[in-house]
## 1
Amino acid sequence: MKQHEGWFMYTKIHEFKKVGLNKSQIARRLDLSRNTVYKLLNMTPYEYEEYKKSLKQRSKKLSDFHQIILTLLRQYPEMSSAQIMDRLIEKYGDINCCEGTVRNYVNNLRAKYNIPKSKSVRQYQAVDEMPPGYQIQVDFGEITVQNQNKINVKLHFIAFLLSHSRYKYVEWLDRPFTTADVVNAHENAFDFMGGMPIEIVYDQDSVLLVNENLGDLIYTKEFNNYINKRKFKVYMCRKADPETKGKIENVVRFVKGNFARHRIFYNLEKWNEDCIKWLERTGNGKVHNTTKKIPAEVFVLEKQHLQPIPEKIKNKLDISVLYTVKKDNTVSYKSNRYQLPLNTYKGPNTQVKVTVSKGKLVIKDVETDSEIMTYNICTDKGCLIKNTNLKRDYSKKINEYIDYVLSLFPGNCREKTKGFIQEIYQHKPRYIRDHLQALQLCIENVHPEVVDKTLNYCIKNGLYSAVDFKDAMDHYNSIPLKDKRKGIDFTPINDEIDQKIKSKPKIRDIGEYTALLEGGDVI
């Protein structure tokens, strides 16, 4: 901070203090830490002046290494601050400062002694334009956008560019492309352009290439089969060399910046439709910055030079889209929800393949491609379309739990208990599990006669509730039971009473009592 800037800050802090602002408010106003504000508020102008002088005289941590660092910079201008720090530690051990301190010190030396960091600049040369119909360049891209619910959605796309006319085709997915997806996109691109080029330029991607193998390219099985069927030449760029296909790199940036950014995502079908319209309107419909021509107009001439495609690939993929399964085991399609079988949802990333065929919605498993459900497409909006066979059977587990609780009751009153529980189930079906749990807990370690009396009382008075059952049981538990053999009342034996019964009094020697009567002490 310069001298006049420091005094300005000092003055503003004290002015804000006079008008009644506290330290936190002053710190926020001036973008300072509270400790700095506190320190400057406690300084007089004279003390602040001395403080400023002490800052000028303070030595830097790396002052001892000044000449060494300067020598390295002059000898190797491209050396980074991280390399310099490593050299210092290697030679002198711990230098007691962090990477940021070294970086700031090195930058100050570069500015002071005019030692810019040299950079190697790659030299380019303009290349001749490709002849019409000879080459297409292909590349992938991805971007994160928001849907109508302000939730981020990551979208992936593949772009095709005819090198001569700059005519483009783009296709989107809401998941990463597989080799099968790439083959399908090629077929769609050739259909869109009305033909196929002689050569296609690719970047090295795992869905296309297994290994570069020093020029002996090893393709993935599906892509290799596709090349053999279509018979086009492949030009594979070297690793980390995107400039080789600079034309398509520009297209990827153009698609992201002009079409996708700030656009709301509703569904993949609409997104692809809007992209095709954008290509007609802008991507292929406006003057290209380099050629100064409209790609769509040049394409009319280039199309005549493309290789004809006599027939479609017979094993072309179905036009299907992956949809996310919601936690209630439904998928949304065109503003309607379609029910899936129970347990289809496996977690937040569960997806199914959705295909539209002859007015029906076919839902398939992503991994096995087996059909899960088929529905007639609903033309309304906001509907839940269900198959009645998929309705969840809630009674199965409840009935098992009822049988278990019944088994805990004494054998002589289980029929009455069954009727009692059925009444609870009929009146409070949503809370039957809670009532069963309460009954299970309250009959543990209870005398069968108490259970029987409680059950009779609740049924007689129409108290069909586990809460009432427990209250009645507490009452009968507090009354001593009657011994039917002797006609006397007795309290049920528990652990405490049983210990008292088993306890025996201590037997003393008669001599101790004699000594006590004679006035002696008993030990």
## 2
Amino acid sequence: MKQIILSVVCLLIGIASLALGFIFPSYGTRYGPFGKGTLSVNINHPAYLMPAVYKVYENPEALNGRYYLFKMLINNNGTGLIHDAKVSYQIPGFIDWTDLDTIPVLHPGQNAVVKCYPRFKDDIAEKTTESQETVNIKITYDDNRTLDEAYSFKMEGRNRFVYTDIAQQEALNDTDWCDNEPLLACFVTPDDPIIKYYAQQIQEKLMKGEEAGASQKPELALKFLKELYEATYLSHMVYSSTEDTQLNTGDITSVAQGIRLPREVVTGNTGLCVELSLLYASVLKAAGLHAFICLIPGHAYPVVEVGGQDIAIEATGIGGEGLGGRVDADAALKRGMEELKEFGEKRDQGDTGYTCLDIDALQAAGIVPMELKDDDYLRKKVDDIAATFNTESEAPPQTQQVAQQGDDTSNTSGDSGGAGLAESYDGDISFNYPDGWGRFNHPLPGFPFLLSEITSTDGRSAINVVAVRGASQSSQAIEYIRRVIATAGRRMVYKFASSSNGFDYYEGITAVNGVDWDWLGVFRNNDDGVVGLMVGGAGRTTFQTNAQLYNQILSTAH
């Protein structure tokens, strides 16, 4: 009897389910007879966006699509089907509500991935300040059901470049610390009307109409490279720094550097090594030439390739007041070729701190520059600058080297040096310094490389004695120092000046609590690393006033 009753019940349930399928055709397919789908999402997104690279963000093919606005994992955690899950998003003030993918069906336990590559308007390249923005996401499904999500991120200004988005604990080497370096190609702007106009002025006034790129002759490419250097030299362009800050977002710690656009370097008549390299690459490409940028620890320089020949130039040879002497184009070219030779040797040794950006290849791969508008005011500034190209009476001076201007400043024999250097420092590196200056050993525990700090009585001049254990060359040591102090919110820019008597000479600026300290430094190898001393003053006036004293101190180093 019980078996008969059970059979009847099962038959009735089957008939009822079949009837529901006829009466409500979507019932069985959407929910199943006893359940429905439940939607959940997991959103992965970057902590910041850089307006300068907005065209990379919109391109799923660029760099294997790694630069997205967000990647969302959609799950069906319910017991029934989910139909027509449509994803939309907006960034208020930047992007209106935009539809992404529609997922036709999600079965119970099934998931799907949706990536968003945002299409910003070109005017985002005019955003010069940073801000906190919001991404709103809406998922509609099963006709009238919705799920709303939102998250915030930091929108940088167009002149801010963040060097990595790899978590600090995962960044193991130079490649990881500079993971975003290929994106520097977005700052190479050969189609910028201002850069085109600047390149045209060089062609007409310095090249006398010769077309370097059209002929693809190495001798014309070399001439154009030298005339580009001459253009920056004659306009009295100076080497100067921009602001470096530390970016801390979640588990990411990175240096965020202010980078002037090539048009800003030209019209502002100033630039840092990487900015000068970006300018050179922009002008070289505008002239039809194949440009590269070599990046080494703490420095960058431009290269042009033509006819299978690479030609490099040290763009920072224009120097600047308080940063060492200026050198002519031949000397800058000689130094550039020396750097290129060293670059090849380091790359062959597997040094990951030495990388090269092939601008043509990167831009062909989708790492393209921002769109920039023409500007009559900037064109007028280019006209004013181009007028200096006719200053033929100004002959470039002979190459000058920091701390090596005559017998008084090139002595490294360890004697007393200049007058008044009555005190002596004896250690891994030894030198003399003025009587009355105060000495503090290991003054900053967070900076293990800083052995001693010696300061003047007025506190406006200082000597830092440093040692970087395990470093094999001065460039590694000084770049390590720059990275460490960057984590404390200080910024440092520097450049190599020369080598003599076993010492490498550097010059630079370090910003401490809003004050720029101009300094000169000498470094050399010892048994377990690199040692050196850096001497300078707070502000340009202090540096200029005491430049002879600083050189005297350096001359006693041994």
## 3
Amino acid sequence: MTAAGVVSGRPSVLRLLAFVAAIAVLVTGCASVPNTSAVRQGEAVGGDREAGAFIRVLARPPAPGADQTQIVEGFLAASAAFDSNHEVARQYLAPEIREAWDTSVGTVVYDPTSLDLTESAETEIDLNAGEVARISGRGEYAASGAGSQVEAQYDLRQVDGQWRISRLPSGLLLSTLDVARAFRSFSLMFVDASGVRLVPDNVVVPAALPGVSTTLVRALLAGPTPWLDPAVSTAFPPGTTLEAVAAPIVDGIATVQLSADVLSAGADARRQLSAQLVWTLRQLPEVTGVRIRAGDTALAVPGADEVQSRDAWPSFDPDGLPADATAYAVVDGELVSGVGDSAEPVPGPLGDGSITPQSVAVSLDGSAAATLSGNGLLVGQWETFSANPVLSGTDLTRPTWDPFDTVWVVDRTGSGAAVWRVQLGGSPERVEADELQGRRVLDFRMARDGARAAIILEEGGRGLLFEARIEREADGIRIGALRRVESELVDVQQVSWADATSLAVLARSERGTLEPFVIDPNSAVTAPGSLPEVRSLAAAPARPLLAVTANSQVWVDRGFGWRAEGSATEVAYPG
């Protein structure tokens, strides 16, 4: 177990981070962390998702006469109760380390079915288990690689005739079941490179006590997590804090009283920070509006009322799709908008069969498209779409659009992956992607916020799913900081962004069949329902999941199972 350190009887400083102290007061949230079941059945993409009910963990204190193994088992179980800074769990510790045990360094999540406790000596218990994930002190959830193991050692001694732990690793060690009960997921909202849309920063936090609105505001003011930080910004001026003790919700209105530092924000920044607050707090169903104050007065925000509705700032929507966005399909060699009986050919050469679409991608505003032709990339607006490639490659992945009217594609060359971007009407530009060098990319999809990408890499003959951030600096654009998204699926072949925080994939589970799955922000995998011989899929926020089977049948998941709706060789949503 690679924890930050080991707590022993020697003096130690208790390093409780302010953020972790704040997140220990949560009570409810938006999604749960995966349990020991690799795949679960669930609702369709775009359907209503009710927040899971929080199950309070009731910890039991040490039983009189418990042996060494029972003490360690009891301590592990009690660690999932966050009340009063793990007050009950600390009763399992020897007096000299009760205050020194530092839970702020993060959490290692293990599979309880693999837990093995061994008494290697009378005063020593060794722990071994399969490692599932790690949660940082800031709440970042990172899936561990397949086969990862956690190892820990617990030393014990007698205290008044009862065994107690005298030495243990720093941080928390929790089972997947504990985390599913004790944690919830939220998205902190930050500003993209253009300053006109929001990017979610997903965190998982303990759900133990009241105070969620205060916790979210403090976490937002603390800035983005280290992983996302280079790809986003915050509109809150440096030094801005929550001046009041809390951000209470009264009659549906959350009041956020900020320090006077916020007054230095200009008009655009005030709109942006308002959007950050509203979109972050609207995750709480009881919030109907947000009031922002600077000291004792209302913060003047151009174009906004004193109480901003939970539906304010729709243009900052992190999902990044217009309300009228529709699906597209390739039918008999022609590109059509809509699926089934409602389908109509798109304007121009792609719609009249002059150019046969292959791996088509449509821009977010629906005004342009990109497609492959042999080893070339074609890009253009509907009426003026040209058969002349703007980029030639060795083996190109299917194209994908960002919100800046730019198409991205990966050329799988003999020496590894070469990432290219083409601005609509512009020339190809090579994108720096050092972490992809020497690796084979199976699929590459830009998030609709333009700050992140989902990438499938081939390793050991199977596809593994990763997420990367897009760093847009004055000296160029870089793809960096690959992190594993999930570790339960055996082989991932295709990916689409279901919404700003979830991914839809075509993958194989341990059952071995290739089928659609949905992965939530905390790597929990849901199977919408099996389909035979699925070849491709498409997903988008608030829209049904689409799948195409080997016989060119289009299947639509509208929340009550798959239903056949027309035929096509491929389907796509804008993005």
## 4
Amino acid sequence: MNQDNSSALEKLRHVVAALQHTACFSHPVTRFATIETHISIILLTGDFAYKFKKPVNLGFVDFTSLDKRRYFCEEELRLNRRLAPELYLEVVTVGGDADAPQLHGEPAIEYCVKMRQFPFAAELEQAMQAGSVTQRDFIKLAQAVARFHEDAAIATADLPYGSAETLRRQCLDNFRMIGGGIPGLNLTEQLQALKQWTEGELNRTEAEVEQRRGRGRVRECHGDMHVTNMIWRDDRIQVFDCIEFNATFRWIDVMSEIAFLLMDLDMRNRPDLGSAFLNAYLEAGGDYGGLDLLRLFLVYRSLVRAKVARLRAGQDSADETTGRRFTQHIQLAKKYIEQGGSSGLIITRGLSGSGKTMITEDLIPLTGAIRVRSDIERKRLAGLAATESSHSRLGEDLYDKSHTARTYERLADRARCILNAGLPAIIDATFLKVEQRQSFQLLARELGVPFRILDCQAPAEILRNRIIKRRETEQDASEADIAVLERQLDAVENLTAGEEEYAVSLDTQQPVDGQKLARTLGLPLLHSN
């Protein structure tokens, strides 16, 4: 830091210290405290926090002029209001002078962002440790993030963001800055393997990266979506503190954004939450094609964190945990590149109300499998939301032979994306016809993966009761009613002798041991808390 910036930083610290008098504020103050990061100083007052930009230039961030600090305060407000409007309140001018600063004073000597303050216990990490947060909460978060990505601005062709060249530079910069690692930690072999794999993946996926950019999958994202930047508030997970200071870090492929959270949950030994989140995100947005890039982004995100640990290791503030974090992130990245191929293609078979969706929902966080639901994909093909009614008549409209054939073609395309990404696929559909089941068996054979049929069974009267209860809630994607069930009962085709070899039959009236079922289906179990 040059002399001018050092002097400006000391002046800012003086301003923040001078503000720590209750008379400076129009609201009650519980107590004053400050938090200082490498780019910010945050003044806590009790109900509200005031976030100042430090006058620093670190290469990737430049707050050295007052105009820049004003601009980036305004950007922080604009960008974070997309996901956390209740937290980000306004940009506040600070007038007066360094000895007697005045909030909302003019002319401005500083700017800050006024935020709603939250207690330490509200940090998502604390809420997770307290057991307040469930898989269902991460499913709701995934649905909110999918909506956020859908509404986010799209990178135009004239912008460099998200290009294959930009991604290559970002990935390889990790290795350049990590160098030989932290002295005393012999990870040279792992780093060499990771670099070789990364370069290979960058070459393999170059065309796909550019195609996704052309399809609008590079958007103005949050850019820093991980557990530390989330809180538990009003019985939901809320994301805050996005990247405002560097557009390149924010305008990214949406799958890179998702990978950051998944990697962070893996580091916290909660892959079950990551699996629930990923499935819900894909079901909400339909971006199954992005799975081909997921491993590359997971490795990249883990190495970004390793790079940060490497940089901190050279600072006075480094402690004994820095080396451990560095090692853990290198090991996690290595685990990603060593993960084997798909463990198989599983299709369900069963009448409406037989429990297919409920049972496969339980398998997702246990196994990391990716599920695709015919009820959702059928509506997506018609431009409808999952729970939106199609107002179709029995056997007509969205449920005629043509639309059904298109739906199963879409399911096959989705299965191919999942399996090619090296992940197990579960296709949740009735699969009442031999022809439908055989086409997926052929797909599994083509891709060289195991094939299983999860045959869900229950008496007709139980099915009728379940459908009636489900229709009362109107919260499920399925539109099946009693008339649909009666038609299915007449049309269902039994498993052939050849299919019996691949079938796992399940009486869904009885409690299901998810782990036992996963093993029977040949699915690996995730290890989590």
